[in-house]
Design goal:
Blueprint (H helix, E strand, L loop, with lengths): L27 E9 L6 E9 L2 E8 L3 E8 L2 H7 L36 E5 L23 H15 L4 E5 L9 H10 L4 E6 L2 H5 L1 H10 L2 E5 L5 H8 L4 H14 L3 E7 L8 H10 L3 E8 L17 H11 L10 E2 L8 E9 L2 E4 L6 H5 L13 H11 L9 H11 L9 H7 E7 L9 H4 L4 E4 L5 E3 H6 L2 H29 L4
Parallel strand pairs: 5-6, 5-15, 6-7, 7-8, 8-9, 9-10, 10-14
Antiparallel strand pairs: 1-2, 2-3, 3-4, 11-12, 12-13, 12-14, 15-16
Bound molecules: iron/sulfur cluster (3 copies).
Length: about 500
């Protein structure tokens, strides 16, 4: 759809005859921020406006004209989330200088407002699938060396001191021949939690790989878009449902903890979000679900920026599709990043009993940083607040002892759950909804406080949405592919010289 052609609000497209009566605008001007042009990526001003209880970003590129896209289908939720904005934590070191302004100085540059809760290492660009929807645009590119990955892990430790979570991603990381060594290298450096982001194909087919992986016990961030074959046909290009279920059962037998990760697209699987949550709650290997509206970067199917899925669509979907199990208030914005980026919920699951944590205590009392500066007077209020901040963080990983402990702590004195930590580890279930930004929705205000970064071999850590939307991904992929090709040529030349040398 050509949204660049006209501005739905400005007088530029209004009839040339001026109205005699002043007219009320049909929108509320909420704020001014910075974004990028979806065509040329130039950094431009952007307005956030509210119309009919929905929030939109509109902006004008001097070369490509006006653009408008929806950023939230529920203005009330969007505006209310702002109170959950927590002061950031400054990282120990920055890797770039402030020069051209955000988002061109990544990173992290000294203007960044938050440390890294979750770091990703994309170990390769190759994949054993070729999905029509793939933000990483998997295909020919590069495969990192062990030396490069070790350097990136060392840099992560320097930047963070006490790093929380690293996630190996790709492409498809399980086809990298040294993935297991990389996981071990991260664990050897004391990084508290290692995750593997995977489509699960190798888990379904390779016994030895699965057994070796299980010994290292990373949490598996498992691509799982729904329970209908048609969903996979559209999003992944083939019916993968049986393979996904097989992989999941095999991971369960191997003792791995799994988080289901679903890409949600309009007209494809918005009506499956409730079923995905219910399925996850019942499957013994699954400790959480992450529901992600499709990010329209890399490879994606045709989309209308005015109709894209946003966080409230997913929340309403869960509430409407789970037979009264959830209410809107069970979903609370995450304060460590900008609170419009992610919402979380936690539930205690015991058989048919499913109790969302926000029903056990008033989370607003602890995580409203704008209107509620004083903590509630309850005994141990500071401890409860710290536990909740741990749970409502991008670094919270489902199925870990840390998360179970924080859940127990949040329930606080007087509400102590009469269960062992081992029991809680298996019965606390996480639901996260993350709305990564694309060129239509990219908001500098959010990315400046991003706590999810992609580590790069040259020592940079680039906020995830900047990496995908601004052009860093393409630039770094090209550079790494070129370096790899050069290294291979040098190796071949050395081999030829070596083979020639003895006969000379
Ligand atoms: S996103 Fe952060 S690191 Fe990147 S330029 Fe902006 S402030 Fe700097
Ligand atoms: S979305 Fe994942 S599984 Fe699909 S092609 Fe891209 S990297 Fe591979
Ligand atoms: S990755 Fe994007 S959506 Fe997530 S916290 Fe960072 S800026 Fe926000």
């Amino acid at each position: 759809m050509d949204t660049a052609a006209k501005d739905p609000i400005s007088s530029e497209t209004a009839p040339s005859v001026k109205p005699r009566v002043k007219q009320e605008a049909d929108f509320i001007f909420h704020e001014l921020t910075r974004s990028i042009c979806p065509e040329c990526k130039t950094v431009i001003d952007a307005q956030i406006i509210i119309r009919e209880n929905k929030v939109y970003m509109r902006k004008r590129c001097p070369t490509h004209g006006w653009f408008e896209g929806i950023i939230s289908s529920d203005a009330e939720m969007y505006v209310n989330s702002i109170k959950f904005n927590k002061p950031g934590t400054i990282p120990l070191e920055f890797s770039t200088e402030v020069k051209d302004g955000c988002p061109l100085d990544c990173g992290l540059c000294p203007e960044h407002k938050q440390h890294i809760c979750l770091a990703l290492i994309e170990v390769n660009t190759g994949c054993n699938l070729s999905c029509p929807i793939c933000f990483a645009n998997a295909g020919i590119g590069y495969s990192l060396t062990m030396e490069q990955v070790e350097g990136m892990l060392d840099r992560f430790v320097e930047i963070e001191g006490d790093p929380e979570v690293v996630q190996f991603s790709g492409g498809e990381p399980t086809i990298h021949p040294q993935l297991l060594d990389m996981i071990q290298a991260a664990q050897d450096r004391g990084i508290r939690q290692v995750m593997v982001n995977t489509n699960g194909v190798r888990m379904a087919r390779d016994d030895k790989f699965l057994a070796d992986l299980a010994k290292l016990d990373p949490v598996i961030y498992f691509q799982f878009d729904g329970l209908r074959p048609e969903t996979y046909l559209t999003i992944r290009g083939e019916d993968l449902l049986e393979l996904k279920l097989l992989a999941l059962d095999r991971m369960n037998q191997a003792g791995l903890n799994v988080v289901l990760v679903a890409a949600i697209e309009r007209g494809v699987n918005v009506d499956e979000v409730g079923a995905i949550v219910e399925f996850g709650i019942r499957h013994p290997a699954v400790k959480g679900v992450v529901l992600q509206p499709v990010t329209h970067v890399g490879r994606h199917i045709a989309f209308d920026p005015m109709e894209r899925v946003t966080i409230p669509d997913v929340i309403h979907g869960i509430v409407d599709q789970t037979d009264g199990r959830f209410v809107l208030e069970d979903f609370v914005p995450v304060p460590c990043c900008f609170p419009t980026c992610q919402v979380n919920s936690y539930v205690f699951v015991d058989g048919e009993k499913v109790v969302p944590l926000p029903r056990l205590l008033d989370i607003d009392e602890y995580l409203d940083y704008i209107t509620n500066r004083a903590l509630p007077k309850a005994p141990n209020a500071a401890v409860v607040q710290k536990a909740l901040e741990g749970l409502w963080s991008a670094s919270a990983v489902a199925g870990t002892e840390k998360t179970a402990g924080q859940f127990q702590c949040a329930c606080g004195p007087g509400m102590d759950l009469p269960y062992s930590m081992a029991h809680l580890k298996d019965h606390v279930f996480q639901i996260a909804i993350k709305d990564f930004m694309d060129a239509y929705t990219f908001n500098v205000k959010q990315v400046m406080k991003c706590c999810v970064a992609i580590l790069v071999p040259d020592g940079r850590a680039i906020p995830f949405c900047a990496y995908n939307s601004v052009g860093y991904r393409e630039e770094i992929r090209e550079q790494l592919a070129r370096e790899q090709a050069r290294a291979q040529i040098i190796k071949i030349e050395a081999k030829i010289e070596g083979s020639i040398a003895p006969s000379e």
